[in-house]
Amino acid sequence: MKMKFAACRLSKSVLPRNYELHLSLDPENAAFRGRVTISLESKKPATRLVLHALDLSLASVVVAGRRLAPSKVVVDAKAETVTLLLDSPLKGRAEVDIEYSGKMNELMRGLYKSRGKNAGKEEAWSFTHLEPTHARRFLPCFDEPSFKASFELSLDVPAGLTPLSNMPSVSDTVLDGRRTVVFQKTPKMSSYLLAVFAARLKSRARKVGRTALTVWAAPEQIVQADFALEAGENALKYLNSYFGIPYMLPKLDMVAAPDFASGAMENWGAILYRDSSLLIDPKLSSDAAKRRVAEVVSHEIVHQWFGNLVTMGWWNDLWLNEAFATWLAYKIVDSWKPAWKVWDEFDQS
User: Fold this and answer.
1) 226-243 and 287-303 are packed helices; what angle lies between their axes, rounded to 10 degrees?
2) Per residue in 265-314, pLDDT tens?
3) What is the pTM of this model?
4) Residues 91, 176: one domain?
5) CATH code for position 242
6) Is 322 a catalytic residue?
7) Of 300, 315, 316, 327, which is the most exposed, with the fewest CB atoms less than 10 Å away?
8) Residue of 80, 144, 233, 300 with catalytic role
């Protein structure tokens, strides 16, 4: 899939350190509301701050404790930015607090609306796909891969749905038909790796060393999760040894979505797959389908190190990220299932 990148690049004189993000999702009406507090550091006095933002309605902007007048919040849809004109120069550490809202699309980018089933009836679900430059459709942020920061997420969704993100939950509360989950703070990572999912899901899990490996799928599909679990366990064990650096997060979720434009997306700790790229029917699926799933699962798990832990500074080096993950995925699958002779397929492709 050819990627298009926004023209506007942000100054490196202001750096994000942490995002504290509170989100409320309404998948049925394709709407969401958010409040983000960005802890940042300005290396030199700044009279304006520029963030990426696209198709978001900003209700309130507070910088270093001062609320900005609407005239000082300048949205440039073509550049996909919002410029905050400050009352006084900003230097050193500060916080930017923004309340905003947006609409989910059905184009499978940013935060998008998906459709699943509940008791035979259609139900609205939500997933994110933020690579390469779609985090800005989801929250005002520094939406370039070199701007790494940690994320602290609180997610409010309809009570029947399962909220998932990059990290395990620390609290889970149901009240008045809504479910609120607070997640652990992430390591520093690029904005395109943030994951927010809300769907009716079941799981199958196993422990791989210190890592909780879990496949999530629609209830009627979860019986097809076992092969992906085996492939994921094999890849995790192989890569922990290969890189000499154990997988860093406490869990690794592999989530099957009914609507997804790509085969998979390597969100750190919460990989999203098109369901056909993850699930295998033990009675009906062919060996070719199993090879495909094993390669995709291995490829995305390679990215947990090469792409997520170590990240290209800009998208012109994406070729290296993807080429290495493809090569190493074949190497992993070949060591696991040598009878498949996957290198023959690699040569042909």
Assistant:
1) 40
2) 999 999 999 999 999 999 999 999 999 999 999 999 999 999 999 999 99
3) 0.96
4) yes
5) 1.10.390.10
6) no
7) 316
8) 300
